[in-house]
Amino acid sequence: MNVQADNNDEIKPRRRFLKGAGVLAAAAVLVPQARAESGKVLKVNLNMPNAMLEGSAQGFPAQGLEPTHQQSVDFLRAANNVGKRSMALGHHPFGAVLVGPDQRTILLTQGNQGSVLHAEATLARMAAGNYTPEFLWGCTLYTSVEPCCMCAGTIYWANIGRVVYGMTEEQLLELTGDNKENPTMSIPSRYVFAHGQKAVKVLGPVPEIMTEIVDLQRQFWNRN
Question: Which of 15, 23, 35, 220 is the most buried (most CB within 10 A)?
Fold first, then answer.
C-alpha cells in the first residue's frame, strides 16, 4: 500500500509493525506531505515486500539501489525536517532517516537526543536490533550533517551499506566553534569508514540541500 502525500507542508510520523526475518520491527515511518522540488509527490510504502524484510533483497543489488540525485535531496530534506522537530523538542538540530534498498521506503527516523545519543548512532542501533545485517547492507542512512566518528563507527557495526549527508562536519565546526554543547571533532566520516574492512558507500555533501541545512544549524548555534 502506498501513501500519497497531501499538499500541505506537515510531516507526520506513523508507526507500523513489520514482521520479517523472525523479528517484529516497529518502524517509525515519516510520511512526507510536502511536494518535492521536482513537483512529484513523495510516497512511502507502509507494507514492505517480503523479500526486503527477509534480508534477501531479491531484485536489488547487494547494497541496494543507488539513489537518484533527486531522491538524495528529498530524503536529506526529510532528515533536516526531523532535525527541526528535534530542535523544537529542546535538542540539537540533527536528524537521520533510514531508507530501504528500493530507495523509496522510509524505515526509521531519529532526531538527536543527547551527546551520546546522536541521531545517526541511535538510529543505527535501533536498526540493528530490528533488521538483519544482510538487509541493512542494502539500506541507506540519510543524515542532515556528516556523521561524527562515533556515529560512523556505529553505522559501520550496524552494517548499513550507504550513507548520504547534506553538509560536512567541517562546515558544522565553522558554525559551532568552541561551543561547549558540541565540541565538534574534525574527523571526516570517510576516514573512519576507509579504515574498516567493509566498503560502506558515502555520498556528500549535497549542494542543492546544503543551504536549508546550514540555515537550520546557524539558527540554533547562533542563539546558544
Answer: 220
